[in-house]
Prior knowledge:
The chain has 327 residues and is α+β, with helices and mostly antiparallel strands. It is built from 13 helices and twelve strands.
Amino acid sequence: MSGFSYIRATSVDEALREASAPAAALLAGGTTLFDLAKCGVLQPSKVVDITHVSGLDTLLVGADSLTMGALVKMSRVADEPAVKIKFPAISQALWQAASAQLRNMATIGGNLMQRTRCPYFRDPASFPACNKRAPGSGCSAIGGVTRNHAVLGTSDACIATNPGDLAVALVALDAEIHLGGRRVGVDDFFLLPGSTPDRETAIEAGEMITCVSVPASPIAKRSTYLKVRDRQSYEFAAASAAVGVEFEDDGRTVRDLRVALGGVATKPWRARAVEDALKGKVLEPETVRKASLLAMEGAVSHGDNHYKIDLAPRVVARAILKMGETA
Ligand SMILES: Cc1cc2nc3c(=O)[nH]c(=O)nc-3n(C[C@H](O)[C@H](O)[C@H](O)COP(=O)(O)OP(=O)(O)OC[C@H]3O[C@@H](n4cnc5c(N)ncnc54)[C@H](O)[C@@H]3O)c2cc1C
Ligand code: SF4
C-alpha cells in the first residue's frame, strides 16, 4: 500500500474541500477503502476521514419516511425495531450483508459506494486489462471465469456485478440519495457501465452522500429481502430479490408491487415487467412463477454465469410468494 496524508474533517464543506485534491478519498468505515488500497486498486494521495463530521449519523424513522445519515452504521439500521416493522426489506438486506464485525464498522454511505467484487478488477498486478479500473484497457473477465458476473445491464466494456444488498432494497422502495444540495432517485444514482464502466454513480466532483431517505408506505411495510448465496453467511449474493406488495381491500389482489434484483446485474435492478404482470392478480404459485421469468428479459450470459438466468426468477418467485402468504 502506498503512502498517503491523513486529514480529519469536521464538516461536509471541509471534507469536500480536502477531497478535491487529486486522488483524495473519503474515509468512513474503511472496510472497502483500505481493502482496495491494499490490493493496489486505489492509491489515495490523501485520506479524508469523515467519521467526525457532525450531522451525518442521524437515524430517524418518522411517520412519512426513514432517514439514514451517511455515517450511520449498517448494524444500527439493521437492529432498529422501527425499521424492522416499517421497512423490513432494509433491515433484512443489511442483516444478510457481510459479517457482524463489518456491519459494526461499515456505514450506509460507504456501503452504497462499495466497488465490484470482480476478481480481475481487484488484482491489477495479474490482470492489467480492466475498463473499470483503467479506462480503455479492455476487460479480462469477458472470456475468463465469469461465475459471479452479471447477466443484466452488461456491455462490451464491462460485465461486473454490483455486489450490494442494501441498494437492492432501496431500489425496490424508491429511496432517494441526498448529495448535499440535490437528491437523486436511487435507480438513477447507479449507472449502467455502457462504454464508461469507470463511472459507477451519479455523484459529481464536489459531492458526497449526506443521507438516504425512504418513503414510508404499505409496500415498504410488507416487504422482504431474499438472498441466495454459496454459503449462508459472510457471502455476496448469487441472486437476491427485494419485494414489496400492497393488496386491495380483499386482501388477495395485488394493488401495487415492487421487485428489485441483486447479484445478477451491473446495478441494483428494478424488474418492472414482473411488477406490471402481477398488478391486479392474485398471487397464485403458477401465475407468480410465470411472471418472475420476465425478470430476465434481455439477460445475456457469459458462460459460467448462465446459472443465474435460471436461479434469479426462482428467487424472485419465492420472495413474492412469501409476501403472498402474509396476505
Ligand atoms: C469480506 C467482506 C464481505 C462483504 N460482504 C458484503 C455483502 O455480503 N453485502 C454487502 O452489501 N456488502 C458486503 N461487503 C461490503 C461492505 O458492506 C462495505 O465494505 C462497506 O459497507 C463499506 O462501508 P464503509 O463505511 O466501510 O466504507 P469505506 O471503506 O470507508 O468507503 C467505501 C468507499 O465509499 C466512499 N465513501 C464513503 N462514505 C462516503 C460518502 N458519504 N459519500 C461518498 N463517498 C463515500 C469512500 O471514499 C470509498 O471509496 C463486504 C465487505 C467485505 C470486506
Ligand atoms: S468485468 Fe468490469 S470490472 Fe471486471 S475486468 Fe471487466 S471491466 Fe474490469
